């Protein structure tokens, strides 16, 4: 007979999920109530405000999609894009490619602007593409590429899109809560994120938000949204204003308890403090990594503090390193993805996991494992280099 | 500052979510691990076997969709239906209408076979429709209509579909774990369910399964599946056989811990025992309801034990009754939906919530509230009528 499942306690320093704050796990295990219960309606109102805070927006259409970030991406595309539309997509990693899949499955045209993996999106190239495609309806890009650790200039890209009368769709799965992000100030029209990165919540939910301009576009579509489940015209009826909520689908009650608690924690800390904390521990990690002699894929100025893509030393079996870290230290770091598969490790410093203990554990364990494998690194110096930063 | 959320402990006897077994809440709050962690891969293998057991199938393509039942429905339709296809849908409640929405948003044709709300699907009418539409590719219907409490003869409908060379898509959101359901024996091709009904798990996940014939149709599509997130050709890469799992989207780790525990509990009890338990407590509830002088929407022979649609006595403010039950007894029962809105209450007896204590609480509380409102019922007899059944 199959038994109950009891996982090890891991330290999660991969590309997400990240370590979940025990307060969030506890919140998630509170008694389930109905999705139309007045208490739950109250929770929904608070959740909306908390997501607005995290996104720095007043957008009315702000809510958690009842599925992971990939579904949040799809929600943005299927609601704003109609068959025959043209979308300019800046791709500098895996997730731009996924945007292309979304656009093409709607029967729309994706104009790809390719940047090297590990570089930030080149604003000048995006401008060229918009000039060459005056009929483009939307500019889409990834703010923080989880596959490479590159941060792009969302503010400049949004300004550019506005100059060309384009809406913007922005992937902030990895940036939300870890890097500065200001939806209203920057003028983002549609944004999606995930719960399992810098919010340190369990995976499975995708906060999204749409500007008034985007809502107008959704309300005036010529065709029905191709996904019934993700149709914001219908979802709005449940997540709309006030106590009158129309049933659309059953909300994932306990997962929303968890997200609520994650956002309460973020608000307690304060966004600016959270952003600063990610920078601080990234600096310490980077000092250790570089002291070992390893290097970063992304230039320092474009580097995400929460996602560190680090090159693998010559001749090392990278999978064996990850496997040993997991077995000996219960420590998870991530493999490379897409074009960087086999070439980098991705070390996450996200949300609750972004702390001094984890930085020192990661550096110490990586140093020890690489040294035991006789990898060409400077052994035994990483932890001290990080401690120097902490002072 | 927004505070942590602390819900009341409710007794959930609506149309779902139902009361969640505390073992499941505890399992859900175990430490999050990575979605590619070998321990998690082990959990996935077990989950697949457990869902196969619950569905009574050997289908290889059996997995939990990372979103609620509505997304499970959409997964079945967008994978099997292509633009221009014809689908015969038997509608006898709200959820058949949702199937129509799904089919039409694919650019396919829905041929509707309408049955009265509260009746089982009429197999003879379905046969007429299939004869009149020899080009139909799929027959779709709801096994257990959550909006009315009617159970349809899935075995007969599947046999009929096979005679007409049609695939079947079957909604078992409310039947799974509560009523006999045998995917392989009946020859169901695509099936979806939910976690928050008779599995007594938290809402948010949708178990699905596809026959070999259905997998072949999905593999040989002329067009790409319109949803990237729900594309089984891609999802299979992650949920496929063995240890080699390709990343598609981040699985909702803790929600899957919960579903695993729910299915372990179901297997411990045994499917047949669970089905019998639902019948037993339904009989007691029905005796009490009828002793009060209230009646059922659905004929006894087609009645779902887990979803009891009960008519509202003349002159009673039905919303006030539900509100009082919630406030005074922390008891949730459901309102009517669609054509039955304002005409019935829906009393759920699902999974963990299907027990003697809940039956007696519900009858006693309903009796007391209706009596206090001077409703035209036989007061003070309901609980004893149920106790007579328990003997």
What descriptive keywords fit this protein?
homodimer; 391 residues; alpha/beta; Aspartate Aminotransferase, domain 2; Aspartate Aminotransferase, domain 1; 2 domains; globular
State the low-pLDDT regions of chain A, or none: none
| Beta-strand share of residues of chain A | 5-15%
Figure out the total of helices of chain A.
14
Number of domains of chain A: 2
Q: Name the biggest interface.
A: A-B, 81 and 81 residues
Report on the biggest sheet of chain A. 7 strands, mixed
| CATH architecture heading of the largest domain in chain A | 3-Layer(aba) Sandwich
Order of helices and strands of chain A: EHHEHEHEHEEEHEHEEHHHHEHEEHH
CATH topology of the largest domain in chain A: Aspartate Aminotransferase, domain 2
Mean pLDDT of chain A: 97
CATH class of the largest domain in chain A: Alpha Beta
Structural class of chain A: alpha/beta
Molecular structure report:
- Two copies of one chain form a homodimer.
- Chain A is an alpha/beta fold and 391 residues long.
- Chain A has helices at 22-28, 38-55, 69-80, 94-105, 123-132, 154-163, 183-186, 212-219, 232-239, 253-269, 271-292, 318-329, 356-372, 382-390, and strands at 11-13, 61-65, 86-91, 109-114, 138-142, 144-145, 150-151, 167-171, 190-192, 206-210, 307-311, 331-335, 344-348.
- Chain A is built from 14 helices and 13 strands.
- Chain A has two domains: 21-268, 3-Layer(aba) Sandwich (Aspartate Aminotransferase, domain 2); 271-390, Aspartate Aminotransferase, domain 1.
- In chain A, α5 (123-132) runs parallel beside α6 (154-163) and α11 (271-292) packs parallel to α13 (356-372).
- In chain A, the strands form three sheets. Chain A has a seven-stranded mixed beta sheet with strand order 2-10-9-8-5-3-4, sandwiched between helices. In chain A, strands 1-12-13-11 form a four-stranded mixed beta sheet.
- Helix content of chain A is 42%, strand content 15%.
- At the A-B interface, α1, α2, α3, α4 and α10 of A face α1, α2, α3, α4 and α10 of B.
């Amino acid at each position: 007979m199959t038994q109950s499942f009891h996982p090890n306690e891991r330290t999660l320093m991969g590309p997400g999920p990240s370590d979940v704050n025990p307060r969030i796990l506890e919140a998630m295990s509170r008694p389930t109530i109905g999705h139309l219960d007045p208490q739950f309606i109250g929770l929904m109102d608070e959740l909306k405000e908390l997501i607005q805070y995290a996104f720095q927006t007043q957008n009315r259409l702000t809510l958690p999609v009842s599925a992971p970030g990939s579904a949040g991406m799809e929600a943005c595309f299927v609601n704003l894009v109609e068959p025959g539309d043209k979308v300019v997509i800046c791709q500098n990693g895996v997730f731009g490619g996924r945007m292309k899949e979304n656009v093409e499955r709607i029967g729309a045209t994706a104009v790809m602007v390719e940047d090297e993996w590990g570089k930030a999106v080149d604003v000048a190239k995006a401008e060229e593409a918009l000039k060459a495609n005056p009929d483009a309806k939307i500019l889409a890009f990834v703010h923080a590429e989880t596959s490479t650790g590159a941060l792009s200039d969302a503010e400049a890209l949004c300004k550019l899109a506005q100059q060309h009368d384009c809406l913007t769709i922005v992937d902030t799965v990895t940036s939300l809560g870890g890097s500065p992000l200001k939806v209203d100030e920057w003028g983002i029209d549609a944004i999606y994120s995930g719960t399992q990165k810098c919010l340190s919540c369990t995976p499975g939910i995708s906060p999204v938000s749409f500007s008034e301009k985007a809502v107008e576009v959704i309300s005036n579509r010529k065709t029905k949204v191709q996904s019934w489940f993700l149709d914001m015209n219908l979802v709005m009826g449940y997540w709309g204003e006030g106590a009158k909520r129309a049933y659309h689908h059953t909300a994932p009650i306990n997962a929303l308890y968890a997200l609520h608690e994650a956002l309460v924690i973020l608000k307690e800390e304060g966004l600016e403090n959270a952003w600063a904390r990610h920078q601080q521990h990234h600096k310490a990690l980077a000092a250790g990594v570089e002291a070992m002699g390893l290097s970063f894929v992304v230039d320092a100025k474009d580097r995400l503090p929460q996602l560190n893509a680090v090159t693998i030393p010559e001749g090392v079996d990278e999978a064996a390193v990850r496997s040993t870290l997991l077995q000996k230290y219960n420590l998870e770091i991530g493999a490379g993805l897409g074009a960087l598969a086999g070439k980098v490790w991705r070390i996450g410093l996200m949300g609750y996991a972004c702390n001094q203990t984890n930085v020192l554990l990661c550096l110490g364990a990586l140093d020890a494992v690489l040294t035991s494998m006789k990898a060409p690194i400077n052994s035994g110096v990483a932890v001290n280099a990080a401690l120097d930063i902490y002072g």
